[in-house]
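Please fill in the sequence for the structure shown.

STRUCTURE ENCODING:
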């Protein structure tokens, strides 16, 4: 009953029980969006977005039975529902093409998985799965799949997590929603780049373990782009932003009233629509996420501070980190690692801002998948770069 009630509230909202409102694509946006399940993005960029076809008309035509057609349309369903607008040859070409792309993604994932399993067998992952905090489901073991963590893992696992959780999702959702640009440029192509980066990561770890005097050159990976104008997007796809205009829909000035609202303003601002308890919970959540953001930033600063104390890098008068130690033939690798560290420190600030903004705009997907998850990912990169600089310096000292 609780699950059914949650579904009713999510689709029909607490403000009214309108079938037309529940069937509008906006009602699906608050849940079916973001880097881990980009259905909204795929639909809005597809040809269907410019036709009467909506989420509900394709996935829920006259029925609430979501078991067969919500996750992916069944073949029998396609043969009847899609045939209302498309001929059989088009439907077959579309589904075969989408299946082919999804299979290519699975093969790239399998290749990445083999690399990480080999690194784990050799004990080359840092931090080692056997020495870090146990996975809450599988314990002290390497976990690649539904229960894989995206925090406090090795960089190699982090790369695979992004391949599986984000890139394969864009590949499949883009293909099946007929947004083949998303499938290619946000799915298949970055999947291949991630696999190449994972292969490079494995080579560097193996060379460090073998104490190779001269390491193979490494390249600087491309950072992910910030998802557009986040102030607008976090609001637009939030529970507030998807309300129909004819209803009591808050806009920017409704809540901010021409400036930045503070905790003392919430009772008056939010009280027009929400209970005292709801307003108090919101204020508590916002305060908590700001503290969490500060904690993540402190963790990143500690990683940078360690290599400063160890006299591997120094901070100039403008606050820029520069190499201090002599890395000899491995200076190129050290320079790339330091550049990686400084880039991810800057990206961490962006991730933390999005995370806080997601909570502030009551948008869980931006809070977590565009904010907290990338922030944890940034922290993995920062710690890893600092650790590898320490390892390379140690290698240099042993060769003297």
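FILLED IN BY: designer on duty
SEQUENCE:
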């Amino acid at each position: 009953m609780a699950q059914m009630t949650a579904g009713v509230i999510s689709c029909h909202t607490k403000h009214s029980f309108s079938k037309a409102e529940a069937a509008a694509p906006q009602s699906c946006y608050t849940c079916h969006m973001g880097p881990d399940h980009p259905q909204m993005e795929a639909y809005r960029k597809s040809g269907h977005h410019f036709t009467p076809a909506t989420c509900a008309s394709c996935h829920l035509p006259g029925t609430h039975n979501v078991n067969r057609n919500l996750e992916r349309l069944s073949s029998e369903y396609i043969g009847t529902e899609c045939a209302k607008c498309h001929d059989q040859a088009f439907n077959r070409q579309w589904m075969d093409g989408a299946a082919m792309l999804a299979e290519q993604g699975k093969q790239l994932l399998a290749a990445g998985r083999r690399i990480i399993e080999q690194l784990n067998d050799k004990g080359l992952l840092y931090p080692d799965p056997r020495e870090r905090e146990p996975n809450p489901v599988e314990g002290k073991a390497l976990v690649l799949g539904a229960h894989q963590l995206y925090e406090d893992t090795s960089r190699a696992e982090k790369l695979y997590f992004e391949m599986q959780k984000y890139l394969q999702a864009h590949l499949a959702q883009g293909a099946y929603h007929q947004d083949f640009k998303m499938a290619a440029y946000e799915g298949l192509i970055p999947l291949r780049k991630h696999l190449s980066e994972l292969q490079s990561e494995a080579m560097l770890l193996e060379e460090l373990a073998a104490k190779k005097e001269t390491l193979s050159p490494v390249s600087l990976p491309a950072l992910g782009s910030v998802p557009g104008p986040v102030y607008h997007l976090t609001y637009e796809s939030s529970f507030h932003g998807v309300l129909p205009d004819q209803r009591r829909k808050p806009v920017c000035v409704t809540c901010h009233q021409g400036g930045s609202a503070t905790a003392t303003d919430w009772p008056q601002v939010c009280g027009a629509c929400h209970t005292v308890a709801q307003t108090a919970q919101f204020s508590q959540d916002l305060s908590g996420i700001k503290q969490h953001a500060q904690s993540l930033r402190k963790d990143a600063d500690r990683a940078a501070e360690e290599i400063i104390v160890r006299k591997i890098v120094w901070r100039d008068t403008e606050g820029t980190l520069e190499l201090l130690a002599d890395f000899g033939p491995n200076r190129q690798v050290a320079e790339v690692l330091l550049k990686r560290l400084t880039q991810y420190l800057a990206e961490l600030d962006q991730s933390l801002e999005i995370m806080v903004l997601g909570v502030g705009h009551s948008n869980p997907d931006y809070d977590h998948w565009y904010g907290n998850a990338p922030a944890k990912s940034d922290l993995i990169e920062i710690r890893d770069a600092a650790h590898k600089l320490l390892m390379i310096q140690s290698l240099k000292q042993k060769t003297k």
